[in-house]
Amino acid sequence: GCCPLSPAGAQSTQILVEPPWTPAVLWDRVTLTCQGSVTSRATTWYKDGVQLVQRWWLEGPNPLLISESGTYTCDRPGTGRSPPVHVVNATPVLQVPARALLEGDSVTLRCRV
Predict the structure, then answer these.
(1) In this structure, how many other beta carbons lie within 10 angstroms of the beta carbon of residue 14?
(2) Does the keyword Signal feature in the UniProt annotation (predicted)?
(3) What CATH number belongs to 14-112?
């Protein structure tokens, strides 16, 4: 994955996916890393729109090892909520690289079973 700049040029919150394919598949041992404001390490994670429970005195885990399929987002102070990352538990699944793609780019597709 990558951390593209917003149109205004300011950094936005993004999720780095490892391995870097989308949709992510649960059986790949997926980790998500929230990237955003460099001035704060506080991270809030959401799964299917619901905040993941964490003890208030701890920062959210970053990176986050995924153990359930769902739609994940994260929030960082100063740069806000990330776009969603989908983690599926399906086979077969057609994957594309988890990076920004532009029209005309050559793309490698993966059919996973």
Answers:
(1) 23
(2) yes
(3) 2.60.40.10
In tens, the pLDDT along 62-91 reads 889 999 999 999 998 888 899 999 999 999
**30, 23 contact by CB (below 8 A):** no
- pLDDT at position 37, please? 67
> What's residue 33's pLDDT?
93
Phi, psi values for residue 27, rounded to 5°: -75, 5
Ranges of each domain in the chain = 14-112
Q: Is the Cβ–Cβ distance between 66 and 22 less than 8 Å?
A: no
pTM greater than the 0.85 cutoff: no
Question: Is the model's pLDDT at 54 over the cut of 80?
Answer: no
* Burial degree of 34 (CB within 10 A; 0-12, 13-18, 19+): buried
